[in-house]
Write a structure and sequence with these properties.
The protein has 89 residues and is mainly α. It has two helices and no strands. It is 73% helix and 0% strand. The longest helix has 41 residues. The relative contact order is 0.09.
């Protein structure tokens, strides 16, 4: 949960910084303002993609490690399609 909070804080800070700079630097000329706004939105979309690609699997691994640490073997494991997997002893 802490990783998600840090990631969200960084994304909001970068997006807010881009929007604020666009407003301060280009109050009269709308073209650079809208270019920076589009960059801010694309930053949000890229951050969402990066979150789904990196952070979610990381959190899944952390929850699996927590289950092993607690020795909670009542949860069901998903079958692995890889044939060369090592069996758990």
């Amino acid at each position: 949960m802490r990783t998600k909070w840090i990631f969200t804080t960084i994304v909001v800070f970068i997006t807010g910084l881009m929007c604020g700079l666009a407003f301060l630097l280009y109050p009269e000329n709308p073209v650079p303002f809208w270019v920076l706004q589009i960059m801010a939105v694309s930053t949000l979309l890229f951050s969402w993609f990066l979150y789904r690609l990196l952070i979610k699997p990381h959190l899944l691994l952390l929850s699996g490690m927590q289950l092993l640490k607690e020795q909670d073997f009542s949860t069901h494991l998903h079958p692995v399609k890889k044939q060369g997997g090592e069996p758990i002893d």
